[in-house]
Amino acid sequence: MTVYPLPAADLKGEGMTSQRARDRLVAILREGGIRDPRVIEVIRNLPRHHFIDQALHSRAYENDALPIGHGQTISQPWVVARMTEALIEFGIPQKVLEIGTGSGYQAAVLAALVPQVFTVERIEALLRQARRRFRQLGLTNLRSRYDDGKLGWADEAPFDAIILTAAGDTIPTRILDQLGPTGVLVAPVGSPSRQTLIRMRGDGQGDFIQEELGAVSFVPLLGGIG
Ligand code: SAH
Fold it and tell me: Does CATH number 2.102.10.10 belong to domain 64-216?
């Protein structure tokens, strides 16, 4: 597993971005029912403040979604943890597709756990920023693309797992078509005011087993590029 180096100032354990702040966040996740130790360790080690504007650094380890500009948000840590846990529960997928790079945080969490991550974002400025963060953290098993994620990433399909971090009223068929026969997909589905986190698992025969994992709140999955 990747261990992210902390800036010297953070190691003192005093600041709002300290290891202590991350440990507090991990305690909140555990109280919220997150159990997978692999996910817990990645979230403990990954500097979330690296993925948000400096003005919000003091809130980086609170269990809240935060604005990242362009009307978008970095997801709430509990939601990132829950979705990641749901995605890897049946085994570590080799190749994962994420739709909605945003800040890059969810993609970086995945990159610490799985061999290959592909992530698509429709707002170029956000993608450029996320790429810079991936480089700074030395994440080399992650590829990103500026495109309408509703189209998936056809050249790299099939994927063992797909995660959508923006909500549509359905899962676009083009995306579902890129999931391997026993692949796992986790996505928020519903209207802006009422969304459910769903997990679909291919049964190997062309059908899916679908489960509901609870209520969530995501920014909308939009069409085209921004
Ligand atoms: N995973 C992100 C969450 C960002 S919010 C993180 O960890 O920070 C969801 C993101 O999905 C936004 O950046 C938004 O621009 C993007 N998005 C919405 N519709 C999209 C689409 N059709 N294709 C690609 N990205 C999309």
Answer: no
